[in-house]
Amino acid sequence: MDNKNVVGRFVWHDLMTNDVLRAMDFYSELLGWEYQIEHSSDFVWKPGEGDYPLIIANSEAHGGFIEIDDDIASHWVAYVEVKDVDSVTDNAVKLGATIDRVPFDVPGVGQSAVIRDPQGAVICPFVPSHKLPAPSGTFLWDELITDNAESAKIFYSELFGWLAKEGNLHQLNDYTVFKSTDDTQAVGGAMNHSFRQGRAAAWVPYLATDDVDETVARAKTLGAQAQLEVIEVPDEGCFAILKDPTGAEFALFKPI
Fold first, then answer.
1. pLDDT averaged over every residue in the chain
2. Does 195 have pLDDT greater than 70?
């Protein structure tokens, strides 16, 4: 990732989970993640102090784990860097989104908000208060799994200024690639898929692995469930979509 211009790109990920310790053990066993426990005075989902396990991979911090109430389904949350959180949040409301949390500040980290798009997927605009480069190499891609990609294209193009391009990345259904406003880099994707029918849409992170087949098999022994079995995509790589033992969906990806 070109860190000179990360506005409009995914820069951080949090796992909102009902069982932080089980999730930490799962991803550590599966992908070798390590953790650094920080103390936070605020969280994306709700205010309040508490421990925040940072995800450490390849000597970089990539995200963290946040404990949520049992009545909320576990899910990954992605952060997109923007120029102004307040204006993006206001625009989201005009576009039909709901605001789960109005813009808030995390000391030493930055400003964010929690937006739920018209199809129910959660996304967080973010402005950092530091000059650290965005992490890379672990969260390789973010994909909106939905049953209405056409509506999603309109919403996110208006929200972040992304350019929606047609693609056939998975050779499954019509695929949308979201590109940066200058049309130089793909930042994420969206696809219709039957396993989301009747459920809220969700942003799913694609996590790096050296061997998708082997890692999927190990994930299943650790309590994960396959949502979409291993698929090879010519000229792109290999991927699978799973649900971790706490119920959060994620994908494994080995690019060519």
1. 90
2. no
Q: Residue 24 pLDDT > 90, yes or no?
A: yes
- Among residues 78, 108, 128, the one where a domain terminates is 128
CA–CA separation, 163 vs 159, rounded Å? 11
Question: Quick check: helix, strand or coil at residue 157?
Answer: helix
| Domains identified in the chain, total number | 2
What residue ranges in 68-224 does DSSP mark as E strands? Answer: 75-81, 98-106, 110-116, 122-128, 139-146, 163-167, 175-179, 186-192, 202-208
Q: Is residue 25 part of a domain?
A: yes
Question: How high is the pLDDT of residue 109?
Answer: 87
Give the structural domain span for 198: 139-255
| Exposure string for 142-168, b = 16+ CB within 10 A, e = fewer | bbbbbbebebbbebbbebbebbbeeee
Same domain, 189 and 105: no
